[in-house]
Amino acid sequence: MHIPFLSALTDYLQGDGAVILPEVELTLFGLGILLIDFTLGVKERYLNAGLALAGTAFSAYTVWKLRVPVGANGSLLGFHDSVIVDPFFLFFAGLFLAATALVILLSVKFLEIEQEQEGEYYALLLFACVGMMFMASGFDLIVMFLGLETMALSFYVLTGFLRREKRSNEASLKYVLLGAFSSGILAYGFSLLYGLSDSTNIDTIGEMLGQRNAFITSLLHNPQSVTPAFDPFLLQLLPVLAFVFVAVGLFFKIAAVPFHQWAPDVYEGAPTPVTMFVSVASKTASFALLLRLFLVVFGATRVNWMYLVAGIAVASLTWGNLAALTQTNVKRLLAYSSISHVGYVLLGLVAGNKTAMTGIAYYLLAYIFMTAGAFAILIVLRQKGLIGEELEDLNGLYQRSPASALLLLIFMLSLAGIPPTAGFMGKYFIFLSLIETKHPVLAVFAVLYIVPALYYYFRIVVHAWLKAPGEAPRPVMSNAQAVALSVAAFVTLAAGLYPEPFTRLAQYALGR
């Protein structure tokens, strides 16, 4: 029996629907959580976490299945070439789903301690992940911006989720104000790109900017052909302004210096699982958007912006490392250290060769798991009457919980870039790419900034391993937290001890 609706649905899922099926599944699970939450009692709301995990599992399976047609065709385009599924998207979608699953596992006990409603929390996590996936799959400025705002709006609410805590509310307000400001700047940059090209498709915009740049170059090399109607300066002004506004908007999102002011306060005030999610997933999604725009739209003009990005990278390394030296709150310390990690990734963009692209993908993969693990220890420490975010709260952790102290040591070693961890391999690829592309000064800066990083990361280790334990009780790790920490530690060590499969994955995503 022919059913028109089912036939139309099948055709849709074999066409445009296939390229957004992972996002659709997450959206449906998020809406399902909001509906089912009304039927659950207070003691049963942990089931929302299971439903959210199921959503990430379904979406991850769909992403995995999409690798087959992508391998056969190179990429899949849908919705009038506004959404693309390619190795770049598959890689980043996997990272977003992994980060979302980790934060779900770490949130169950945390929300139980805080006695907060759980349904909307898990739904917002899934909606944020949907936004991130559209940021990575968008091949159109409108789709990219909608994905960015979907992610941002979810995070604004999640940051202030602890409604009874003043600092959580303050962090949410600061995040909203600065986030809206940066989104406005980015939107203006997008409007300039549309005005220049009469298109929102980034491939079309990139081709136009490349042709425009070639034309300007020819005029500069043949001054006698320049007429008042074709002033090279005026021809170049609008593309430069477009790049500046887009870059500033994106640098806000990744918290690069001097657009980092929001990060320490938001990291400190937000619920710790949300801080972890903002730090790893939001930053990785913003880098996915930045890479897509810089490589596709502004790739032809790379020589014009390379030194600007290098300056931002060095400033981020300098300020992030120096500011972290004096912090006593671990979340603020990790906020400033995350700024320095932004500097390393931007240095890879400056190098721009195949090794650099592999290094960027590898670094972002390592960053998600090692940073998630570090925040997970703080979540484990959070108990009734103990927030567990100050350095003194870590005192004697080895005597109170040897397993937690050992895991913390692994994550700190990786964040500092010490072998044999994933963080070391990520930095190695960045250093190698800088040397290959004849940027020895930047390579020296990058290596030297490991020294202050060692100091402040090992301050945490000293408090956990060498300080006498205070009055804080022994932390109790739930089964879900143990699973999340085990996964984070496994990837952190495996990617350092046996990097080959992770290197192949990074080359699959960004290797050129």
Which key terms come to mind for this protein?
512 residues; mainly alpha; 22 helices; 77% helix
Structure report:
Helix content is about 75%, strand content about 0%. The protein has about 500 residues and is an all-alpha fold. It has a domain at about 300-510. α9 (about 200-220) crosses α10, α12 runs parallel beside α14 and α15 (about 355-380) packs antiparallel against α18 (about 420-435). The longest helix has about 30 residues, at about 165-195. It is globular, with a radius of gyration of 23 Å. The mean pLDDT is about 90.
Topology:
Layout: H1 4-14, H2 16-19, H3 21-36, H4 47-73, E1 76-78, E2 83-85, H5 87-114, H6 119-137, H7 141-159, H8 166-197, H9 202-221, H10 232-254, H11 262-269, H12 272-297, H13 302-324, H14 330-351, H15 354-381, H16 397-400, H17 402-416, H18 422-436, H19 440-448, H20 450-465, H21 479-497, H22 500-510
Antiparallel strand pairs: 1-2
Helix pairs in contact: 3-4, 3-6, 4-5, 4-6, 5-6, 5-12, 5-15, 5-21, 5-22, 6-7, 6-12, 7-8, 7-12, 8-9, 8-10, 8-11, 9-10, 10-12, 11-12, 11-14, 12-14, 12-15, 13-14, 14-15, 14-18, 15-17, 15-18, 15-21, 15-22, 17-20, 17-21, 18-19, 18-21
Largest sheet: 2 strands, antiparallel
Q: What fraction of residues sit in β-strands?
A: under 5%
Shape: globular
Tell me the helix content: over 70%
Ends apart, CA distance between termini: 49 Å
Instruction: Provide the spatial order of strands within the biggest beta sheet.
Output: 1-2
Helical region count? Answer: 22
SSE order: HHHHEEHHHHHHHHHHHHHHHHHH
Give Rg in angstroms.
23 Å
Number of strand segments: 2
